[in-house]
Amino acid sequence: MCVPPKTRITKDMIINAAIEIAKQSGYESINARTVSEQLHCSTQPVMYHFSTIDAMKRAAYAQVDHLHSEYLMTIPPGQDPALGIGLNYIRFAVEEPQLFRFLFQSGYAAEHSLLEMIESKELVPILAAMQEGAGLSAEKTKQIFLTVALFAHGYASIIANNGLEYDEKLVAEHLERAWNGAFLAAAQEENEHEETV
Fold first, then answer.
1. The pLDDT of residue 6 is above 80
2. Given this model, what pLDDT does residue 145 score?
3. What is the C-alpha to C-alpha distance for residues 82 and 41, in angstroms, rounded to an integer?
């Protein structure tokens, strides 16, 4: 009788298993035992690739962060980039509340302040799309982003923590008001600055 070859457990398989656990029961449930159960293997290959659970969680976090950035940038044609990104941010919290909590409520983010966050390389394509749509300077675009991001994050956090039912039409209306207010303020400041120069 032929014995099937053993499956080689790779680092990527472990990361994907950790993400699946985070999706199902939260990032707090990621450990060597739960990951090995998800992969139907012993804990040995898990600990071979990751000497600590923290290192495994950080690797999973980085992958979820990358997936989140891709999700944000998937904007329907013709939709304003800032509004599309804001709605996608909230939709992600609706569709993947546990992953949203992992990203924004776990303490694994590399950035420790909003100012650090806005300078992160992951935001470069998002800010570039917003700047193109707004037609303003990079600095004013960052100000708009912060306003819309804070608004969207508040909504998304409430939804991800089961405190609010999701009504996309209502959310879109509120997000558009936040965007319009931030845009008008930024455009007025930019015009006033140009007039004084």
1. no
2. 83
3. 44
